[in-house]
Specification:
Layout lengths: L3 H8 L5 H11 L6 E6 L4 H13 L4 E6 L8 H4 L7 E6 L2 H9 L3 E5 L6 E2 L9 E5 L8 H6 L2 E4 L11 H18 L8 H15 L3 H10 L2
Parallel strand pairs: 1-2, 1-6, 2-3, 4-6, 4-7, 5-7
Helix pairs in contact: 1-8, 2-8, 3-7
Length: 219
């Protein structure tokens, strides 16, 4: 059975030197300490903008809770960020949130409800799953009731809220800055780091999955 190190060493030969250098460089800052969770987002431009912002901040996974709508990013808007970001799709229900919580995440809903902590005042202490609501209604009451805490972005004008993709960008960037300035070991473990390098390498190669399958079949 091939080890992850053997797999990565094998598929690296199919990458250009430039692509390999980029994977090695940007993987170091990758983190799953903050996990963005999107509740039934339905506008594909918003989905794409969220994926792009998440990747730009070094968080390379998004959970899409789907019910009526499909999380389907517009590839023109993602500007290639979808190559690096893994989108995990789960049903929009509390069982999915419980599953995320069982992975060690605190459920943090982005909403001004329930005496929310303002983003500048929030202190990151443990891994958080950051839940964003639908474009029109925000986070559902069911999820608000389930959440461990709520987080709000301060508003300084008549407008009561940001567009969901803008809110995601603001939160992800601000939380990344908080992590950088903290003493928290927020980066990926050696095992997870290797797995993300493999995924990125496969996504960078034409017929990458077929190449990997053939390699794994070799005795």
């Amino acid at each position: 059975m091939k080890t992850p190190h053997e797999i990565y060493d094998y598929i690296k030969q199919f990458l250009t030197e430039e692509r390999l250098n980029k994977i090695e460089h940007f993987s170091v800052e990758s983190s799953d300490f903050v996990l963005p969770v999107m509740e039934d987002v339905y506008q594909y431009r918003n989905a794409a903008a969220i994926v792009r912002s998440v990747e730009a901040c070094g968080f390379h996974q998004v959970v899409a809770l789907e019910e009526e709508n499909v999380f389907n990013p517009n590839l023109k808007v993602t500007k290639g960020a979808d190559t690096w970001v893994k989108v995990e799709k789960l049903p929009r229900n509390l069982a999915s949130l419980q599953e995320i919580k069982s992975r060690g995440y605190k459920i943090l809903a982005v909403s001004p409800e329930k005496n929310a902590t303002m983003l500048p005042d929030y202190e990151v202490k443990e891994p958080i799953a950051l839940v964003f609501g639908t474009e029109l209604e925000g986070v559902s009451q069911e999820i608000l009731d389930f959440a461990d805490e709520t987080l709000a972005i301060p508003m300084y004008g008549f407008t009561k809220s940001f567009n969901v993709s803008v809110a995601a960008a603001i939160c992800m960037y601000e939380l990344k800055q908080k992590l950088i300035k903290s003493n928290i070991d927020y980066k990926l473990s050696e095992e997870k780091l290797l797995q993300i390098k493999i995924r990125w390498a496969l996504n960078s190669i034409k017929s990458g999955e077929m190449i990997l399958e053939k390699f794994l079949e070799e005795k």
